[in-house]
């Protein structure tokens, strides 16, 4: 018959420090005779388990009911574990849950070292166990907090992105606003200076829009602005094209690397007239029309965004002065500069 042996506290001058460390660290001690399977544990081990040492545990099988069902297999697979540890010259270490008699589930960490006989085979395991429930709870709380922070950061990033999009979008028409256009124009100028990539920029004005608003009201005016914006967005269909509302009834268009901007402007003029928005107060046409002033930059120029837009504004003024419902194009950065005044 196998007799239970309660492990006594370590004693002697050499072990006084170890005993003190075990007391302070609240470590329970256990020993396993690998050959016989006898398990011996000290009083602190029983205290951690919430068990009465008067009902001793002498085998791994008797210990199994103390362990959470999900952790039993990996904690009590003695033969496989010892073989693996011995083969890799490793110490034993595992975290698992225990079930106390009062119904509480707690986390413990068990650490052990194998000792060998003369034949080199592991014969004995000596280990310590500690309650790490609070550590695990803090770790889980930290993980939960980290997950919450990740979620919150993702939400904030989405909100920031949405606010950024809103800050670059015209509230009425839904296309880019002046801020967005100025940013993209600045990038186009920078690309031109760095790589020589040509681009065209244009200002587009609805002809006699004040008369339209006065005659039909601001609600009709807003509807007309949305319709014109839709036509411009359709025209700016390439990946880096940009249509924007520049202010009031004035729009802007950016066409990087466009081979034939005149064709784009002509198509815009025709598409807006095809909207067939009645404008009986216009001396130009019975429907809504636009005037366009465009500049194509062929080579790096010293002028910045403001000067370039002034050139566009000059071209737009020329289109209006020539009778409206037309586009005027100018070229920059090439010796053969010429103006093109074309009625739509």
Commentary on this structure:
It is a single chain. The chain has 344 residues and is an alpha+beta fold. The protein folds into 2 domains: 13-131, PAS domain (Beta-Lactamase), CATH 3.30.450.20; 168-343, Alpha-Beta Plaits. It contains 11 helices and 11 strands. The chain has helices at 16-25, 43-49, 60-63, 72-76, 78-87, 133-167, 178-195, 209-216, 218-235, 261-274, 305-321; strands at residues 28-33, 39-41, 92-99, 105-116, 122-131, 199-206, 242-247, 250-256, 290-297, 326-332, 340-343. The strands form 2 sheets. Strands 7-8-6-9-10-11 form a 6-stranded mixed beta sheet, sandwiched between helices. Strands 2-1-5-4-3 form a 5-stranded antiparallel beta sheet, with helices on both faces. A hairpin with a 5-residue loop joins strand 1 (28-33) and strand 2. Helix 9 (218-235) packs antiparallel against helix 10. The chain starts with 15 loop residues before the first helix and ends with a strand. The model is unreliable at 10-14 (pLDDT under 50).
């Amino acid at each position: 018959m196998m007799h239970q042996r309660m492990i006594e506290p370590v004693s002697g001058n050499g072990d006084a420090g170890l005993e003190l460390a075990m007391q302070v660290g609240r470590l329970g001690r256990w020993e396993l005779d690998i050959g016989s399977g006898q398990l011996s544990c000290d009083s602190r081990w029983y205290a951690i388990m919430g068990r009465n040492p008067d009902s001793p545990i002498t085998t791994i099988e008797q210990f199994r009911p103390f362990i959470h069902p999900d952790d039993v297999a990996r904690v009590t697979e003695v033969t496989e574990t010892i073989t693996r540890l011995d083969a890799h010259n490793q110490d034993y270490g595992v975290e698992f849950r225990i079930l106390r008699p009062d119904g509480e589930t707690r986390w413990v960490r068990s650490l052990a070292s194998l000792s060998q006989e003369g034949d080199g085979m592991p014969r004995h395991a000596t280990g310590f166990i500690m309650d790490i429930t609070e550590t695990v709870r803090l770790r889980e709380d930290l993980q939960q907090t980290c997950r919450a922070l990740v979620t919150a950061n993702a939400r904030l990033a989405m909100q920031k992105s949405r606010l950024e999009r809103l800050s670059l979008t015209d509230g009425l028409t839904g296309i880019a606003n002046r801020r967005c256009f100025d940013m993209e124009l600045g990038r186009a100028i920078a690309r031109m200076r760095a790589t020589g990539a040509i681009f065209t920029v244009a200002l587009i004005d609805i002809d006699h829009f004040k008369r339209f608003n006065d005659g039909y009201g601001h609600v009709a005016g807003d509807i007309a602005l949305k319709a014109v914006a839709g036509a411009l967005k359709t025209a700016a269909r390439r990946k880096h094209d940009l249509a924007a509302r520049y202010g009031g009834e004035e729009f802007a268009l950016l066409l990087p690397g466009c081979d034939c901007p005149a064709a784009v402007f002509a198509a815009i003029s025709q598409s807006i007239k095809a909207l067939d928005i009645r404008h009986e107060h216009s001396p130009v046409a019975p429907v809504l029309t636009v005037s366009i002033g465009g500049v194509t930059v062929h080579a790096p120029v010293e002028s910045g965004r403001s000067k370039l837009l002034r050139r566009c504004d000059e071209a737009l003024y020329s289109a209006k002065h020539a009778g409206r419902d037309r586009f005027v194009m100018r070229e920059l950065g090439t010796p053969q500069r010429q103006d093109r005044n074309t009625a739509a």
